[in-house]
Design a protein that fits this description.
Length: 163
């Protein structure tokens, strides 16, 4: 088993925490509709990916680092994909099964993201690791705030559903 530094473990945990938060916001906001290109979720995704592209330039990646960086970006993009939702007429059993399937898919995406972070981390030198660690901790905080603000600014759910 590979040994991971405390900083790498902190980064990984922060990425996982952000992923769970982003998934929860996405799931709640997309309960009854798919986001369009102008949705708050897509705006947050665009802002986040722009910051990550800037980070990639700041890291001055070389050779094999580029492939690991692109795998990392692909894993990050998967966080912003529109979520599916159960059929309007689904009963509680179908909804339960749907939620379990979604959780399985989410777990796989988180595992893929974790692998991508670890592979990139292994390719970075110490100064790059420091830059990546600090930038990603800041990115996670900004992304969490952006998603929270997007949700509060009116990414409305279907108003016809009353429990």
């Amino acid at each position: 088993m590979n040994r991971i530094s405390v900083t790498a473990l902190k980064t990984l945990m922060a990425v996982l925490l952000l992923s769970v938060s982003a998934g929860a916001v996405c799931a709640a906001d997309n309960l009854n509709h798919e986001p369009d290109a102008a949705s708050p979720l897509q705006q947050v995704a665009g802002q986040s990916m722009a910051r990550l592209e800037h980070l990639g330039q700041a890291l001055n990646l070389q050779g094999q680092q580029q492939a690991a960086w692109h795998a990392f970006l692909q894993a990050e993009r998967s966080e912003f994909r529109p979520l599916d939702h159960p059929a309007e007429n689904a009963n509680i059993v179908e909804i339960s099964e749907f939620r379990a399937d979604q959780a399985d898919q989410r777990a796989q995406r988180l595992a893929d993201e974790s692998d991508a972070v670890h592979q990139l981390w292994d390719k970075l030198d110490d100064p790059q690791r420091m830059t990546f660690d600090r930038a990603m901790q800041r990115e996670m905080m900004l992304r969490w705030h952006d998603l929270r603000d997007a949700r509060q600014s009116g990414d409305q759910r279907d108003g016809d559903r009353h429990w």
